[in-house]
Amino acid sequence: MEKIMIVEDEMPISQVLKAYLKKANYETVQVFRGDEVLRRFEEESPSLIILDVMLPGINGWDVLRKIREKSDCPVIMLTALSEVDDRLSGLNQGADDYIAKPFVGDEVVARTKAVLRRMGKQTLPVKSFGKLEVDLIGHRVKLGEEEIILTPRDLTLLTFFAEHPNQTFTREQLIEKVWGWEYEGSDRAVDVSIKRIRNALRGWPVSEGEIRTLRGLGYQLSVY
Length: 224
Hints:
Keywords: DNA-binding, Phosphoprotein, Transcription, Transcription regulation, Two-component regulatory system. It holds the Pfam family Response_reg. InterPro entries: CheY-like_superfamily, OmpR/PhoB-type_DNA-bd, Sig_transdc_resp-reg_receiver, WalR-like, WH-like_DNA-bd_sf. Residues 124-223 form the OmpR/PhoB-type domain. Residues 124-223 bind DNA. It is built from eight helices and eleven strands. Strand 1, helix 1 (11-23) and strand 2 form a beta-alpha-beta unit. The protein folds into two domains: 3-122, Response regulator (Rossmann fold); 126-223, Winged helix-like DNA-binding domain superfamily/Winged helix DNA-binding domain (Arc Repressor Mutant, subunit A, Orthogonal Bundle). With 224 residues, the protein is α/β, with parallel strands linked by helices. The longest helix has 18 residues, at 105-122. Helix 6 crosses helix 7. Helix content is 41%, strand content 23%.
């Protein structure tokens, strides 16, 4: 299920957006302050962000710029400002679409689907990090000319990292996203899986990337 982050400081509007998106089978995350967005973005890894312009803490334009420094996650700007200059400003700064208030809920859902569909067509099925190639569709991993054989779980974990490079995840987040909520074993299974992946990728030059342990924070696929 694709996850949509709703960044809107007015609770009634946020709740309306959540209801419409939930009805369209999207998972939602609600954020009410601009200065909370980046932290929640790292934690949640949304598929798309609906971002209000007028926010407490940091305004939407500044949030958009910070997001674009680290991610190409699609962003739909949501604002009461309807002037053409404001619309063009958002698109020029990296927004993928623009919706002016007052909006129709069904239109927001339709635009969300359209942006995700457009971005999906642009997503390359193979993620390359130097010698390392991860085929997201064919579920294959190559290191140079050598195919790397992994267990299904390890392959799923590596694929997840490849889809979210340079983002940090705790053990609990990885258990949820890779093992699933029904998993009842120890979260140390993550450590064991990562150890096997590292061993399998021992020929991958550190200058190109590595699976890093960030003490007290979690793991990330760091690529350079």
